[in-house]
Specification:
This protein is α/β, with parallel strands linked by helices. It has a single domain, classed as TIM Barrel (Alpha-Beta Barrel), CATH 3.20.20. Helices cover 44% and strands 15% of the residues. It is built from 12 helices and 8 strands. The strands form 2 sheets. A 4-stranded parallel beta sheet has the order 3-2-1-8. The radius of gyration is 17 Å and the shape is globular. It binds glyceraldehyde-3-phosphate. Glyceraldehyde-3-phosphate (G3H) binds next to strand 8.
Amino acid sequence: MRKKIVAGNWKMNLTSEEALKLNTAIDTFVAKNEPKCEVIHFSPYIYLNEGINSVESIAIGAQNGYPEKNGAFTGEISMYQLKEIGVRNILIGHSERRQIFKETDAFLKSKVDAATNLDLTIFFCCGETISQRENGKHVATVITQLENSIFHLSEEQFKNVVIAYEPIWAIGTGKTASPAQANEMHQAIRAAIQKNYNAEIAKKTSIIYGGSCKPTNASELFHQSDIDGGLIGGASLKSEDFMSIISTYK
Ligand SMILES: O=C[C@H](O)COP(=O)(O)O
């Protein structure tokens, strides 16, 4: 049985007080209700330490990390530093990093290698633009992203990878991929994993969906054959909404 995962990506949101409150509320909820999924908050760097030290039933992950161990990289935080404070999960390849911060496939590959060397669980994000979808290039785009930045890992290394499919046109827009559209892509990703690795690894890799996922659509999405949970942006900032999404796996 594949691991089901509901992860919140807070992006650049929340005050320190709100972050602590939300971590505590979700941690308490998960401890009490024991949902059948792993719950993670991908938090801004500055709230990681307090988060890690204040929760027991959920994990706190990083939204980013620099691949070099240390050095003259003003303003950056290394994955090594993240690991040292207790981070175990990291997002790599989010479309906001690709588009706003111009992170290339080659740079993402170097991040994948750094995270792998540190034994971090990689949540590798991929997804197409609306024009790529309209031109029928959505599947090819996503598979190329995987081939360029993560499929070089060995079978053993790939076991520490979760794929997050996030169609760019659905992120923060209120426009969700239909369950059929999302599942079609998840099936294509799983087939590509099988082709590059093997059927066993493909069967065991969790592939989660992100893009305007909310309490009203999470259940239908998460019940698709190849969708193993979600990477939630906006709805993870409201404890009631996030709890409702987590409860899909009760
Ligand atoms: O990482 C999360 C995604 O970017 C989804 O964000 P959203 O739920 O606000 O659309």
